[in-house]
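User: Can you recover a sequence for this backbone? Please restate the input before giving your answer.

Assistant: Of course. Working from this structure:
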C-alpha cells in the first residue's frame, strides 16, 4: 500500500488543480427540452454510464437536528456523466474488465456466463425503448441485485414503463454505419389494464469509416403488459437484432506505413471490381423475457423474471489447407522479413507502386481452387485450398430471477433475491464459401505434418474419416460448453438522521463441463463425450457507511470481499480438441474499497472518489500459433494478481446565464502484482512442453488509459437549445504485456542490461493523446390544432481537430523469436481512433 499512498498524495493535488483550472462540458438537459441520451447512446461505451435519478439534493435539505436526505446520484453527477467523453480511448472504469459489471433487462441478468461480458449489441438500435435505466456505480447498494465491484445496470423496457408517444427519427453518420431509421409506438398503461410497446430500427453502411468495413443491422422490439389488479402485473418482452458487419484487423505499424494510412485494413480485396471482406461477423440472438410483479402491500414487493435466449454469432475468416498463408499482412512477405537492404527496399517500392497487393487477392484464390484436382473418398473434383469459414458459437441460455423488497419501519430497507442460470455454447467451424472449388476436406494439416503416414491422427472427426465438405457443413472442432449457476443474496440499508449504513452478502454455486461432439484423431479417448464436472462455491460480503454533514455535503466509505469462479474458457486448456482442464483450479479473490466526498448543490456539484482493488488467483488461457513449435500453443496461466488504485474527480459549476463549466478526471494506476505460473502445451500433443514463471510483477495492466481528463463549456439556451465543447486528454496508455517475453526462456543467453535484454522486457507504452468534441441540439414544439408534437435535432462532431495519430489499443503479439531474440520480428499490432467523425439525428415525437 505504500505505492498506493504515494500515488494518492501526489496525484490528488495535481488532479484537483486540473479540475479547478479548466472548464468542462456535458449537455445536461431538462426532461422537457433537448434529449441528449440518443446522442450519447451512439457513442460506443465499454461501460455505459446511465442516469439513476434526476432529483436534486437541494429539494430535501435537512436542518440541524433533523433527518438529512441520502445522496441522490443523478444524471448530473459531475464525474460519471463525463465519463462517456473517454469512450474514444476505450476507457474502462477503474481499469476493470466488463465482466465486473452486471446488467439486467426487466430483472433478467444478460451477462454471458462463458466470459462474463455483456453484449450491448444484442439490443443495439433500440434506444427509444431502452432509455428507462438505473445505474449503480461502484459498491453502492441497489434494490434489484447484489451487484459487482464495478456496479450494476438495470434497464426497464416493460410496456407500462414507456412514455405514451409515437416517435420516428433518422440519423446520418460516418462511423460504423452511415444511416439509421428508428420508430417506436407506446400506448402507456390504458384504462383497461393493457399496455403495448413496439419499436424497430435499421442501420446501414455500404462502407464504414474504415475502408472495407460495412454494416447491415435490423432491430425489433415488442412488449405487452397486463395489470391484473392493483397487486399483480404481468409483462412479456421480446427483442432481437439480426446484424452483419464487416470487420477491421489490427496490424503492425509497418503495414500502416506501407499503406500510407493509419486506417489501413487488410481484411478486404477487390473481386470483379467490387470490394469483398474476408472478416465479418453475423449475429442474431433473440431474447424473450416474462415478468411478474407482485405488490404485496405498500411496503413489500416481489419481482420475478424468466428469460430465454438462443441463436448464433459467427465470425467469418479465411482458412486454408496445405497452401501458403493468403493474408496480405503475412509477416514473411513483408520488407521487415527480408535479410538484406536491397530486397527490403525492393519490396517497399513494390507495395508503394502496387497498393492492391496490400489487399486480399480474391481472383488468385479462386484460380488456385479451380485448378486443384484431387480424389478423396472416391470423390474427384477441385479441392479448395482456400475457403471462407464461419467460427460459430451457438448459444442457448435460460434464466430465472426473483427479488424481494420490503421496508421495515421508517428507516430500514431489506432486499433478498435468488437467481438460476444455465447456458450452453456449441462451438464449431462451418464452411461458408468454397471460393470456386468443389469441396474441402476435414483434415488437420498440422497433425499430418507432425505424424506423416498416420491416417487416423490427422482426422478432425475420426468416426467420419476423410469426409469431403460442402457449403454449410460443420468441420474442424465441434464442442459444447455447459454452465450452471445458482445465486442468492441478501442486503439491508439503514437510514439514520446523520448516517446511512448498508450490509450485504451473497453466495454462488457454479458448475461447468465440456462435451465433445466429435472424436478427434489426436485424442480419440479424451475428445468426444462429457468431461469431468468442475464445481465452485463462492461467497461475498460488502458494506458501507455514508455520513451526511448536511443535505449538500456527504462523506462515504464502502468495501467488499468476494470470490468468483474462473470462466469456463480459462478452465479447459484446449477445448477445441480435448477435455483436459488446468490442474490448479481456483476461484479468484477480489478485495475492493472506495471512499469519497460529494458536494451536491443545485448549481455547484463536486465529487472526489478514491478506490483500491486487489485481484488474486486469477486464471487465463492464451492460444496462438508459435513458429518455433509450428503448432497452436496453449499458454495456461495461474496466480494472476492485479492491483488497481486511483482517484476520480468531477466538477460542475455555473459561470454566467446558461454557461456552465464541467470537468471529470480519472487518475489511476493498474499493475500486475504477482509472478504468474504458466503451463505450455500444443494442440498436437498432450505433453507439457514447459512449466515456467512469468515475471509479470509491476507490469502495467493494459487496454485502457490509466489517466483520462475531460474539460469543457456548456451553454443551455432559453429556447430549448444547447451547445457544448469538450477537450479530452489521455495518458498512461499501455499495451497488455506478452507473458511469453517475460520468462527465463525468452531471455536465456541474453546479457542482463543490454539493449536486447531491455527490448525483450520493456512494455509498450502508447503516446499521450487528445481529442476535441462538439455537441449541440435544439427542440422545437409544434402545435397543429389539438395535436402537439416535438421535433428534436441533435448533432455531434468527434475529434474536430482530426487527430489521426491516436492509437487506442492493440496487443503485443504472443509469438516470440527464441532464436535471434528479435522482438521486431513479431512487433505489436495497433488500432487507431477515427479522425473527424460526426453524427446527426432528427426525431419527431407525437
Amino acid at each position: 500500500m505504500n505505492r498506493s499512498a504515494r500515488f494518492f498524495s501526489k496525484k490528488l493535488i495535481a488532479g484537483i488543480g486540473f479540475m479547478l483550472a479548466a472548464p468542462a462540458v456535458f449537455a445536461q438537459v431538462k426532461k422537457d427540452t433537448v434529449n441528449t441520451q440518443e446522442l450519447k447512446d451512439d457513442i460506443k461505451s465499454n461501460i455505459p454510464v446511465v442516469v439513476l435519478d434526476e432529483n436534486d439534493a437541494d429539494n430535501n435539505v435537512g436542518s440541524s437536528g433533523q433527518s438529512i436526505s441520502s445522496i441522490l446520484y443523478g444524471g448530473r453527477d459531475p464525474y460519471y456523466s463525463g465519463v462517456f467523453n473517454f469512450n474514444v480511448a476505450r476507457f474502462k472504469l477503474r481499469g476493470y474488465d466488463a465482466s465486473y459489471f452486471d446488467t439486467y433487462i426487466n430483472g433478467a441478468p444478460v451477462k454471458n456466463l462463458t466470459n462474463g461480458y455483456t453484449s450491448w449489441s444484442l439490443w443495439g438500435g433500440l434506444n427509444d425503448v431502452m432509455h428507462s435505466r438505473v445505474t449503480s456505480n461502484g459498491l453502492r447498494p441497489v434494490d434489484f441485485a447484489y451487484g459487482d465491484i464495478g456496479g450494476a445496470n438495470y434497464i426497464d423496457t416493460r410496456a407500462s414503463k414507456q412514455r405514451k408517444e409515437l416517435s420516428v427519427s433518422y440519423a446520418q453518420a460516418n462511423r460504423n454505419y452511415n444511416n439509421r431509421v428508428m420508430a417506436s409506438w407506446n400506448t402507456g398503461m390504458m384504462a383497461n389494464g393493457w399496455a403495448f410497446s413496439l419499436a424497430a430500427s435499421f442501420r446501414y453502411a455500404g462502407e464504414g469509416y474504415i475502408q472495407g468495413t460495412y454494416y447491415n443491422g435490423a432491430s425489433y422490439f415488442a412488449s405487452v403488459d397486463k395489470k391484473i389488479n392493483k397487486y399483480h402485473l404481468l409483462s412479456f418482452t421480446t427483442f432481437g437484432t439480426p446484424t452483419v458487419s464487416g470487420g477491421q484487423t489490427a496490424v503492425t505499424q509497418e503495414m500502416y506505413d506501407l499503406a500510407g494510412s493509419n486506417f489501413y485494413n487488410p481484411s478486404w480485396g477487390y473481386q470483379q471490381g467490387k470490394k469483398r471482406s474476408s472478416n465479418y461477423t453475423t449475429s442474431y440472438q433473440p431474447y424473450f423475457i416474462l415478468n411478474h410483479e407482485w405488490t404485496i402491500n405498500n411496503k413489500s414487493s416481489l419481482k420475478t423474471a424468466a428469460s430465454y435466449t438462443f441463436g448464433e454469432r459467427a465470425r467469418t475468416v479465411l482458412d486454408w489447407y496445405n497452401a501458403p498463408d493468403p493474408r496480405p499482412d503475412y509477416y514473411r512477405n513483408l520488407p521487415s522479413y527480408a535479410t538484406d537492404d536491397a530486397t527490403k527496399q525492393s519490396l517497399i517500392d513494390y507495395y508503394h507502386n502496387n497498393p492492391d497487393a496490400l489487399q486480399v487477392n480474391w481472383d488468385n484464390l479462386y484460380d488456385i481452387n479451380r485448378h486443384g484436382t484431387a480424389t478423396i473418398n472416391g470423390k474427384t473434383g477441385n479441392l479448395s485450398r482456400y475457403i471462407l469459414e464461419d467460427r460459430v458459437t451457438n448459444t442457448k441460455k435460460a434464466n430465472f430471477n426473483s427479488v424481494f423488497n420490503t421496508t421495515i419501519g421508517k428507516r430500514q430497507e431489506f432486499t433478498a433475491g435468488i437467481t438460476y442460470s444455465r447456458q450452453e455454447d456449441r462451438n464449431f467451424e462451418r464452411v461458408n464459401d468454397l471460393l470456386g472449388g468443389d469441396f474441402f476436406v476435414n483434415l488437420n494439416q498440422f497433425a499430418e505434418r507432425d505424424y506423416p503416414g498416420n491416417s487416423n491422427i490427422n482426422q478432425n472427426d475420426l468416426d467420419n474419416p476423410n469426409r469431403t465438405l460442402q457449403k454449410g457443413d460443420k468441420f474442424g472442432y465441434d464442442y459444447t460448453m455447459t454452465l450452471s449457476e445458482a445465486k442468492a443474496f441478501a442486503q439491508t440499508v439503514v437510514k439514520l438522521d446523520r448516517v446511512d449504513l448498508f450490509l450485504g452478502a451473497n453466495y454462488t454455486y457454479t458448475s461447468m463441463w465440456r462435451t465433445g461432439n466429435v472424436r478427434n484423431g489426436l485424442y480419440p479417448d479424451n475428445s468426444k463425450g462429457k468431461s469431468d464436472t468442475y464445481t465452485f462455491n463462492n461467497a461475498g460480503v460488502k458494506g458501507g457507511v455514508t455520513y451526511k454533514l448536511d443535505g449538500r455535503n456527504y462523506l462515504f466509505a464502502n468495501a467488499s470481499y468476494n470470490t468468483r469462479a474462473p470462466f469456463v474458457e480459462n478452465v479447459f486448456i484446449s477445448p477445441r480438441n480435448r477435455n483436459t482442464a488446468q490442474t490448479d483450479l481456483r476461484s479468484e479473490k477480489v478485495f475492493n474499497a472506495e471512499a469519497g466526498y460529494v458536494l451536491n448543490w443545485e448549481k455547484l456539484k463536486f465529487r472526489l472518489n478514491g478506490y483500491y482493488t486487489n485481484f488474486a488467483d486469477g486464471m487465463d488461457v492464451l492460444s496462438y500459433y508459435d513458429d518455433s513449435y509450428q503448432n497452436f500453443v496453449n499458454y495456461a496461466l495461474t496466480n494472476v494478481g492485479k492491483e488497481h488504485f486511483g482517484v476520480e474527480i468531477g466538477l460542475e459549476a455555473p459561470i454566467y446565464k446558461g454557461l456552465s463549466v464541467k470537468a471529470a478526471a480519472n487518475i489511476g494506476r493498474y499493475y500486475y502484482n504477482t509472478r504468474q505460473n504458466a503451463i505450455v502445451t500444443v494442440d498436437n500433443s498432450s505433453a507439457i512442453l514447459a512449466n515456467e514463471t512469468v515475471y509479470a510483477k509491476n507490469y502495467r495492466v493494459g487496454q485502457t488509459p490509466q489517466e483520462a481528463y475531460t474539460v469543457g463549456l456548456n451553454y443551455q439556451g432559453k429556447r430549448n437549445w444547447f451547445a457544448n465543447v469538450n477537450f479530452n486528454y489521455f495518458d498512461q496508455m499501455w499495451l497488455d504485456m506478452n507473458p511469453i517475453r517475460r520468462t527465463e526462456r525468452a531471455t536465456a543467453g541474453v546479457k542482463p542490461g543490454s539493449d536486447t535484454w531491455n527490448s525483450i522486457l520493456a512494455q509498450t507504452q502508447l503516446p499521450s493523446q487528445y481529442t476535441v468534441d462538439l455537441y449541440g441540439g435544439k427542440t422545437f414544439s409544434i402545435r397543429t390544432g389539438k395535436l402537439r408534437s416535438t421535433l428534436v435535432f441533435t448533432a455531434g462532431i468527434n475529434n474536430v481537430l482530426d487527430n489521426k495519430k491516436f492509437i487506442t489499443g492493440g496487443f503485443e503479439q504472443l509469438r516470440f523469436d527464441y532464436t535471434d531474440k528479435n522482438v521486431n520480428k513479431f512487433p505489436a499490432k495497433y488500432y487507431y481512433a477515427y479522425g473527424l467523425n460526426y453524427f446527426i439525428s432528427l426525431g419527431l415525437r407525437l
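That completes the design. Residues 7-66 have pLDDT under 50 and may be disordered.
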